[in-house]
Request: fold
Amino acid sequence: MRFTHPHPESDSRKKAARLFRKQLKERADGAVTAQVFGNGVLGSGQASTAPARGGTPDIASTAARVEKAR
Reply:
């Protein structure tokens, strides 16, 4: 899985993304893993939500308001 977020290394949401990655790997016995792309590497804010809808990242965390896709 690809997990993207625009937050800096010091942000608590970055720490949460790392915890998610760790727990996902443990609970899936390594069958499923996640790569975390922080600091807006795959797009920042709302720019990362459109690709998430299209499947580029599997998960996107953002502070931007996201409208429900129609």
